[in-house]
Design a protein that fits this description.
Blueprint lengths: L10 H20 L5 H25 L6 H70 L5 H6 L4 H87 L1 H23 L2 H8 L31 E3 L9 E3 L2 E4 L5 E3 L4 E9 L3 E7 L5 E7 L10 E2 L4 E4 L10 E7 L5 E2 L7
Antiparallel strand pairs: 1-2, 3-10, 4-9, 5-6, 5-8, 6-7, 7-10, 10-11
Helix pairs in contact: 1-3, 2-3, 3-5, 5-6
């Protein structure tokens, strides 16, 4: 019979640790927002969409004056890659969670095996000691014990004692064998967990490698988008018709934004009349906004006239302020409200617009991927709306932040911060 020689603890402690481990593990699974299969399906859809856009870009290569269209498609590729990266990060997070759970299971099994081996060895050592003592005391011959009886009554007593000893020995041997089988079963379960750990670790490593590739691809697409933007600027300088076309598109974009800001103004103002005495007189109180990029206070371009960085147009009206920040920096909602616009357009790239109860709207543009909320969503002050990027007519990572009054006119955002 195989003997087991490992240090351990009490069996009750082992069971307690195993139960605690399982209880800690079970809720983690139910709280997962998406399963691995759902994430992989989402990833497949994003990659398919990106492949379709890549074909469209290739078809534009031979066309003149196609830089504006290519910029739009490159921006969409950048957005899709950003979403793929986020999905891969979720997948890696799930793998890490599973790996942590498996490691916990392994630790619990190792503890349990050690406890059982200790109990097994302790019982077996006691059994061997009893056998040795009997042998040393010449009590191992049951016939000799019976023959040593001095009366019939004593003979019966000795016979009953021998039967009891034999039964106890059989029970002890059976218990030792059962304990050995249990230990082997636990070791088999441990081997299964170790194999699962190796599998999940390999899958996590593969996902991390793909994530790194996606990050490199993202940088390349961002460079292509910047190159397309420069082509637009170069083409505009020699093509008056293109300038007019782009200006017309930009005018339409601004009209849509103002329309979204002006819509439902009557209901918004009525809901806020009881909370602000100054709004009843037609004036909006200043200082109700919070800075959308905490810690990023440098402004690279202020509200008002400037030379357009892409078209080169003099005295171009800058509709907001530009706040530089690293790509991926969280953008926070400046005040509670309702999303009235969430889309991509050539000028502002990925953008979101929020209408507030006092009739004011705020707009956040050039995000690295689509906003986290759709039209109609209710958002609170401090809600993360998206992440800093350089989509649309942008020459570098920054947040373009605009404020529109209840009539849809742009106003200087700096007048509305606390």
């Amino acid at each position: 019979m195989k003997l087991f020689r490992k240090k351990g603890f009490m069996r009750g402690l082992s069971l307690f640790l195993l139960i605690v481990t399982l209880l800690c593990y079970l809720p983690g699974r139910t709280e997962a927002a998406k399963s691995l299969s759902q994430l992989k399906k989402e990833l497949s859809e994003l990659e398919s969409e990106q492949s379709s856009i890549s074909k469209k870009i290739k078809n534009l290569e031979s066309q003149e004056d196609s830089a504006a269209e290519k910029k739009e498609y490159y921006d969409k590729e950048v957005s899709l890659l950003g979403e793929q990266i986020a999905v891969y990060e979720d997948i890696i997070g799930q793998y890490q969670g599973e790996i942590d759970t498996i490691n916990d299971n392994i630790a619990a099994l190792e503890t349990q095996i050690a406890v059982k081996e200790h109990e097994h060895d302790e019982l077996y050592d006691k059994f061997k000691l009893r056998i040795r003592v009997m042998h040393e005391e010449n009590l191992s011959s049951y016939a000799g014990i019976l023959l040593g009886a001095d009366s019939f009554t004593n003979l019966i007593e000795r016979l009953e004692a021998i039967v009891s000893i034999l039964k106890a020995d059989r029970d002890t041997m059976s218990k030792i064998e059962t304990m050995a089988e249990d230990i082997e079963a636990d070791k088999s379960a441990l081997a299964t967990e170790v194999a699962a750990l190796e599998e999940k670790t390999a899958a996590e490593k593969e996902s991390k490698a793909i994530l790194d590739e996606k990050m490199v691809e993202l940088e390349a697409k961002q460079a292509e988008a910047a190159k397309a933007l420069k082509e637009i600027s170069d083409q505009i300088s020699t093509n008056e018709a293109l300038l007019k076309k782009l200006q017309k598109e930009e005018d339409q974009i601004e009209a849509d934004i103002k329309k979204a800001s002006a819509s439902s103004s009557s209901s918004s103002s009525s809901s806020s009349s009881s909370s602000s005495s100054s709004s009843s007189s037609g004036r909006v109180p200043t200082g109700f906004l919070k800075w959308p990029l905490p810690g990023k206070t440098y402004i690279s371009s202020y509200f008002g006239n400037r030379t357009h960085p892409v078209t080169g147009k003099k005295n171009s009206n800058h509709t907001g302020i530009d706040i530089p920040a690293s790509g991926g920096t969280k953008i926070y909602c400046a005040a509670a409200g309702t999303v009235t616009k969430s889309c991509y357009n050539k000028a502002y790239g990925n953008m979101i617009q929020v209408k507030h109860s006092n009739g004011i709207s705020t707009m956040y543009a050039h995000m690295n991927k689509p906003a986290l909320y759709k039209v109609g969503a209710k958002v609170s002050q401090g809600t993360v709306l998206g992440y800093v990027g350089t989509t649309g007519w942008s020459t570098g990572n920054h947040l373009h932040f605009s404020v529109l009054n209840s009539s849809g006119s742009y106003v200087d955002p700096l007048n509305y911060f606390k």
